[in-house]
Amino acid sequence: MKKWQKYFVIFICFILFTASTYGINLYRQYKATLQAISIAENSDGDKDDSNDGNIELESLGKEPFAMLLYGISARKQLNDGGRSDTMMLALIDAQQKKVSLISIPRDSYVQIPGYRMNKINAAYPLGGSKLMMETVESWLDIELQGFVSVDFEGFIELVDLMGGIEVEVTRKMEYDDPIDGTSIRLTPGKQVLDGKNALDFVRFRQSNDGRHASDYNRMERQQQALAALAEKVTPFRVVTRLTDMMTILSDNVKTSLTPKELETLIRVFASFNPANLETTSLQGEGYYHNGAWYEKIPQGEIERVQTIIKDFFDHPSVSDPVSQ
Fold this sequence. Notes:
CATH class of the domain at 2-158 and 252-314: Alpha Beta
Protein name: Transcriptional attenuator, LytR family
Distance between the termini: 12 Å
Pfam families: LytR_cpsA_psr
Strand order of the largest sheet: 11-6-1-2-3-12
Radius of gyration: 19 Å
CATH topology of the domain at 2-158 and 252-314: Nucleotidyltransferase, domain 5
Helix content: 40-55%
CATH architecture of the domain at 2-158 and 252-314: 2-Layer Sandwich
Organism: Clostridium aceticum
Domain Cell envelope-related transcriptional attenuator: 83-233
Largest sheet: 6 strands, mixed
InterPro entries: LytR/CpsA/Psr_CW_biosynth, LytR_CpsA_psr
């Protein structure tokens, strides 16, 4: 999981920071992009660019904090806001320029506050980002300071902007869903995929013949696809496509951080060393129940991750290992 998680964070920060140093017009667009992706609100429901966001601006670079990162798979043609297909808990120590990412299987069977036990990705359509955060906080006993979400349409647009990505398809992938119009057709072998097929590659879980692939199989494909996308993101490509990239970010990335908080973090992590990023994931056991697949996470695994979280906040040293 390490490569794609690193690029998930570094890729967005690199684009935004590059924009802030590349000319007056691009700097203005950079500032507009920060405004567009921030949905922080004040008590009157208006966009808030003050210091009253989830994190005190003056202490943003001093105290470690946790955020929820997730990708949204929406079906706009059905007027469906979608579900959270990819979830990560991000532990951030801006002072030490250190990040720990903990992947959460989307099928994790959890108690959703105010509702019954269900897959964790059901929290988003039931109550949006707020319920997603409440679910994770209750389940893992952690306080979250905010979230960052990415619509997978943005992934399609970025892949197409970069001219496609080369991946190794290890099995035949055929799946049709007449309800939402999904039609996946991929054959085995190394090949260059456009945005639509790249998204099919990372989302595929079940074929028309009923063969099922786990969340972990899909996470491996996400790793391969995002690593391939990152290889296309050279400084030359970024500079020549910066305007289009910022438009894609504006349309597809949302966060509860204020623009000032975002800018502070971007400046802090502009020289981020990937060696200071640690990753792990919650490990469970898949099972089939009442016509659906779930991921049962043992209590011992939850306690392991809670220990990682506690150690991160209690011992914020670059040399301390975070993941196992």
